[in-house]
Amino acid sequence: MRKFLAVLFILLAVNSFAYTINSIKYKGMVNMSETVALRMLKFEVGDAVDDKMLDASIKTYYKQGYFDDIWITLEEDGVLTFHFKEKPLISKIELKGWKENDSEIKESIIQIKVGALYDEKKIEAAKKRIIEAISQEGKIDSVVEVQKELLDNGSYKIVFLVNEGAEIVIKELKYSGVLGLSSSKFDEIIANKEREFMGWFWGRNDGKMKVNDLAYDPLRIRDVYMQHGYLDVDVKEPFVKVNFDNYTADMSYQIKEGEVYTVNAITIEQQKHVIDEAKIRELIKLEVGKSFNVETFRSDAQKIKTLIADMSYAFVQVVPDLKKDKDKKEVEVVFKITPGDKVKIRDVVIAGNSRTLDRIIRRELYLGPGDMYSLTDLSDSRNALGRLGFFDGNTIEEKRVDNQTMDLVVKVKEAPTGNIQLGGGYGSYGGLLVSVAVDDRNIWGSGINVGVKAERSELTSNYSFSISNPRLNDSDFSGNFSIYTSEYEYNDYTIYSDGISLGLGYRFTRHISGYLGYGFSQNSYDFDENSTYYNDDYYYENYSKSSVTASLKYDDTDDFYLPRKGFTLTQSIEQSGLGGDADFIKSRTSFGAYKGLEEWLGFDAIARYKAKINYVKEMGYLPVAERFYLGGIGSVRGYESYSLSPTVEDAQRSDGVRRVGGDFSASNSFEISFPLVPKAKMRLVTYLDWGYISASGDAPLVSSSGSSTYFSNNISRGGVGAGLEWFSPVGPIQLMFSKPLGEKEGDKTSAFEFTMGQRF
């Protein structure tokens, strides 16, 4: 800082210790107002000041960080002028060599915004944060240089030039002192692992060091030991020897196991008696006489907390304690319960819903103003909001008012629920697709689902209107209505359908709902020139269908599109024959189980298992189009949609067979979904599908020649592959790349498929 005090020499000679200030002026000051500047002075107009006071005022202004230089002048008439040279603004920030297009890095790591004043200290701090962030990725010897360019407008362009260092690869990992457990148990949970053979291959460990996890890996190893009763285990921080010539490292752990402790007693201490001890003990899974397990110990403590919190003790504390007898190697487990007071909900505040009406959110909450607190109700409320599919995420904050009262603040982040589509695409089964659609699952924020669609592809056409309300008049009743006309070209024929459906549902509990609906459709077949002989077949006659469907559904998942926990189970029965030509009973069962794996893997992976079982029984007339077919997304990927089917012999066809559908089918899928590009809401999914379809042998089809043919085969096929799950601006999209398993001659396979709008 340059300090310059221009004062009249005569005045200095006469009076070197005091000056009377008659006026105060500021020149060159932009980023601070004169009013604020005057308030910061320790003197005002009319006061006598000395050199120390003037010097202190300069320092005060300089500390604000806005200025490169400050000096003052004092004229004969007592006019004091502060002169400022302000720091230039930063008008552009660039990052080159690392995370160049990552806007979040600029906010979280660089922490300097466009429009900020240039500050060398902040620039240096940003450089250090960049190097630290790169080191957390396991890279060392990184270098960051800063280029500063003065632009014509007087502002600076700042460029951070990053030269990333090399990654350290763990060549060898050793454990010393491991006797009671296998070291392979540690390899499952630690982040820093030894490089495996072909570590570059997907699914193999590449051995790259994760620096930020080095401090946590010993704790993870210790936790494994404590799950097996080793309460005295001591795991030292790893010794790391780095070879800077090739950036490899050898790591070793020193472990002192100790001995296994047995549980000799389980004690429950209630500071205030609020519940029978027997009810608490019913929840506890730890057993006297068996080895201690810290994971079970934590789970028991959480169960006890939930039990007490569901009795309205919102601020309950369950403090577990371990009393070890080192001589006998026994441990007494103590659960100390401090329930506090019962808590009532004072108010529920809704935030973040710019579109969805408050009442649509409130009707999904199981806690409201005046209700007594319940931890289970709070958790179920979060899950219920997630199942709506209206929000990207939701949180319910508990704000303590006093010892007996709290407010709940429900914060939601709205997701796009509707879109207008005018365009086209290419489907793996239907070919070229042209679509015009207006669809909104939450129209005008009302919770009502309305859809209008006009869609045409090479093999299909569909024109429909539908409307459904999951909560009629905010009650537990739901209702729906739809009307449609469609054309679908199967492998062997085309079927045209015009129909209408309506129904009424009811939510019996927060997880169980029922539905009763009616549908009517008029259906007709069309065959190509090579299939005219079907026209006389009994099972290919035009028909009408009048049916009633009853279903029951259980769903306790936490999200509509991407659940990470919970189950779904649906059972429906359709009875046809109420006035139409078709007469059959059809049963459909579907099951889904979802489990987030972040707790074990350290990232947001999700395991899914989905299964379907379908059965239909002919009661008078079962059209071929009402039978079951497998293949495609939703059943067995790797095969064309609806291509897997029992067949009958047909000499008039080139392949000698005709697909006729099955009366029983079963399919199941196991999937693992991984985060791919979290910011773009993209995920990678790998999967294994397997399905089975069959038809009873006593149901003949009559050909035009008058001869009878019979169902001749049962089919079992599988598929394996990977795909992309993407929450795109127009809705959730799945892109699947598959390889068929168990392929037989004549099968119609498919390597690529996609869908839009389906639950993952």
Task: Walk me through the structure.
This protein has twelve helices and 41 strands. The N terminus is likely disordered. 24% of the residues are buried. The chain is mainly β and 760 residues long. It is globular. 15% of the residues lie in helices and 45% in strands. The chain has six domains: 82 residues, Roll (Ubiquitin-like (UB roll)), CATH 3.10.20; 74 residues, Roll (Ubiquitin-like (UB roll)), CATH 3.10.20.310; 89 residues, Roll (Ubiquitin-like (UB roll)), CATH 3.10.20.310; 77 residues, membrane protein fhac (Ubiquitin-like (UB roll)), CATH 3.10.20; 71 residues, membrane protein fhac (Ubiquitin-like (UB roll)), CATH 3.10.20; 339 residues, Beta Barrel (Porin). The strands form ten sheets. A 16-stranded antiparallel β-sheet has the order 22-23-24-25-26-27-28-29-30-31-32-35-36-39-40-41, with no helix packed on it. A four-stranded mixed β-sheet has the order 1-5-6-3.
